[in-house]
Design brief:
Layout lengths: L4 H15 L3 E7 L2 E6 L2 E8 L7 E5 L3 H8 L5 E2 L9 E5 L7 H15 L2 H9 L1
Length: 125
């Protein structure tokens, strides 16, 4: 079975996030996946097979990048009070940002959360 565009984007984002130094995937809420570095979440991926409302959440401290992410149709500050700390939830739909841009946002989130030594390792690649 071919993956839908949103699930392809999620798979690309997941693979990219897991390629970052020290990144690990965990499932703290049943099937909902997160990717962590140094025991801290830097991307919420949601459930793998969620074809109804797939999306990701990332922490974007840069105001311009944060604003750009919020401009995606359906994007919003992340619930549970995370939005006030720079977290943005971006739906993965046909109108979503391209997968490469989503990966850029995942990297921005990673750089915000990861220890400096792992960011330096990423920069050395």
């Amino acid at each position: 079975m071919a993956l839908s565009i949103p699930l392809k984007a999620r798979a690309k984002v997941r693979d990219f996030a897991l390629s970052l130094p020290g990144a690990v995937e965990e499932f703290p809420w049943d099937e909902s996946a997160v990717v962590k570095v140094n025991k801290k979440i830097f991307v919420f991926l949601g459930a793998e097979g969620n074809g109804e409302s797939p999306g990701i959440s990332v922490k974007l401290k840069d105001e311009e990048v944060h604003g750009h992410a919020l401009a995606v149709p359906g994007a919003a500050p992340t619930a549970y009070g995370l939005g006030r700390h720079g977290w943005v939830s971006v739906p993965l739909t046909g109108e979503s940002a391209p997968a490469d841009m989503l990966c850029d946002w995942v990297e921005e989130s990673y750089r915000t959360i990861a220890p400096k030594r792992l960011v330096a390792e990423l920069d050395a690649r």
